[in-house]
Specification:
The protein is built from nine helices and no strands. It is globular, with a radius of gyration of 16 Å. It is mainly alpha-helical.
């Protein structure tokens, strides 16, 4: 059991629904900042205007890890899956399992701005995310959904789940 911190800044860094959501939001913020920096360094080419921007795997990783944590926060919030179950298969780092379970438990009603294109982008990103290909060097071409759609999916999930009245670990 980890010791609880007495500072407000670390109070929410726990495995409660609000803790998971806030931690996920931090990953998404890092992804957004990195994406903005990328755009300053590398203006879009004409080809990228039609095919989508080519960005670092680290940018994708931050957005997708934020998605993972947001989905886990939702499942914890509605008491559908306990923390131990979330850490192992079929969930773990499997975005498809987390997303499909969340959708089956009314996520679309809670997050009405989550579009089919967002869900498709998360599903299409899952294999590379699960296999840790975004965290380690991967040689060769890889197909990704466009970063704009992945980023929007992550931002939408976080924004709409923040509207729920989630509890901190101290309140549970």
């Amino acid at each position: 059991m980890k010791p609880k911190s007495s500072t407000n800044q670390e109070e929410w860094r726990d495995d409660s629904p609000i803790g998971l959501l806030r931690f996920g939001e931090e990953f998404i913020t890092v992804g957004k900042d990195a994406f903005k920096a990328h755009r300053k360094r590398c203006p879009r080419t004409l080809l990228e205007e039609h095919t989508g921007e080519v960005v670092s795997d680290a940018i994708y990783y931050n957005f997708l890890h934020g998605v993972e944590l947001a989905l886990k926060s939702y499942l914890r919030h509605i008491d559908a899956v306990n923390l131990q179950e979330l850490r192992r298969p079929p969930y773990g780092h499997n975005l498809c399992s987390l997303l499909d379970k969340s959708i089956s438990l009314n996520l679309r009603a809670v997050c009405p701005k989550l579009k089919d294109s967002h869900i498709d982008a998360i599903h299409r990103s899952n294999k590379r995310y699960m296999q840790k290909e975004l965290e380690y060097v991967h040689i060769g071409l890889a197909e990704y959904p466009t970063i704009n759609v992945v980023a929007k999916a992550a931002e939408t999930l976080i924004a709409e789940l923040k509207e729920l009245r989630m509890e901190s670990a101290k309140q549970r």
